[in-house]
């Protein structure tokens, strides 16, 4: 481990499903400051494949933006010492002799639908849950790999790298798999945290596809000379494995000062859960579709996926495509002013997963289920936020019940923490205080694990969270008495 000077700076590359950013972090025993040096869009790119429109990530453009952001970071902080990369989970690139075979598919692509049955014919869902502890999601990596095998692509590959590990490879030339993100593939043993070779064999995958596993905080390697030249860095810069699943990094930065908390990492997705020391593998847990994902320092992120603000952003995209000019702040104010009851729908319904006419799908759901469809944009937004708050509240309550963990407060971190109406509605439905912020929780967690690995700070996750709580004071939402559930 390199001992850095107190004024050393690290860079967090934080890639989300709709945007990416490069953040500079200054960290010390009593200091935690971040500033953004680059932001860029991200999203699915439709491609025609033999008459079928498939969705891919424009990973090369994403990497170009990362390099440009890192160049800006170095220009502002020539002493930059470390870089950490996090992203969404499950998606990957297949490589042969270090070369990418195809542009990574987007998890919202529907190619995995037939692969689900093929996987379950070899390993039934109950048996899979006992081994990997993951909730069923049709885009989990093992289903995507089965689809690639059916297409013949998998036979050409000699390595699979998840998105943050792929960027780490391009930066350093070193191939690894960081455990928090690897845990979402469905191919890790939930008890040991290692690749489950018997499951890999049963599903017909080649063991050699999967690179060595490393823990968050591991030094991966130094920047390749060509990369250092590209970002105009004249010094040795390390790439550090952090909690490369963006939710794992976000949970590191939950500003909790006690143990009895739940979290909602709210952005495109809403990840609702609690932090545990070990997995919950009961039949009830599987039936409720709760997942046991790897956390930093061997913790377990016991959580449930909710569609999240994707419902709102995709609705706005539909309205803008129809020619409407949308100002989000105005729309939220109008939604807050709605006093009549609105439909509360199941935010987890699979019809809402793919891009498309989200308002039309919501109206169709309401009509099919005997609910009054929203009539205006304001009512639609209010319906979406009420439905998300309901899903968040159910998720917290189920996580507590299934795990046996007491929850006395709920932390909402990420972009959703800025949505005041959503935070208040969640507090109202839970009957518990909701603490909102920080917005950039993922980047903060990324920076903190780098800083700890570099000797800038020390201590447990609890001590790191105490530093977050001092540096980014959350906004508190108290539940309305009339809505507290008994």
From TrEMBL:
Gene3D superfamilies in the record: 3.30.420.40
InterPro entries according to UniProt: ATPase_NBD, FGGY_C, FGGY_N, Rhamnulokinase
MF (Gene Ontology): ATP binding; glycerol kinase activity; rhamnulokinase activity
Pfam family, one: FGGY_N
Keyword Disulfide bond: yes
CDD domains: ASKHA_NBD_FGGY_RhaB-like
Record keywords, A-Z: ATP-binding, Disulfide bond, Kinase, Nucleotide-binding, Rhamnose metabolism, Transferase
Domain of life: Bacteria
GO biological process, one term: glycerol metabolic process
Keyword Nucleotide-binding: yes
Carbohydrate kinase FGGY N-terminal domain residues: 11-252
Family affiliation: Belongs to the FGGY kinase family.
Protein name: Rhamnulokinase
Organism: Cryobacterium arcticum
